[in-house]
Amino acid sequence: MSLHRIATGRLRMEGELTIYEAVALKTELMAALEESPVLELDLSDVSELDTAGLQLLLLLKNEAQIRGQTVHFVQHSSVVREVLELCDLAAVFGDPIVVGRRNPVTEAS
Question: What tens digit of pLDDT does each residue of 76-102 get?
């Protein structure tokens, strides 16, 4: 799993969000939360998500709420959507889940 800084307060996760990466990612995500009162995390390139990864996302949301900050998860990959639906947690995260990326230019053709 790699975490890419797109801009201040905007990050993109790429790869597997599993128990093997959760500890290292926790440190990086908490540091990012320290840097910005509003954090946006792009999940479009998450290829695997297990319960440890899910717990990390929940921890990040909860920690932000405790601090009076905001974390938004955007561009959920199909893997992330499936896990959230399976665990019935979409409403808990409170972020709109985008079903897929749409290209208005090609759809108009």
Answer: 999 999 999 898 888 887 777 755 444
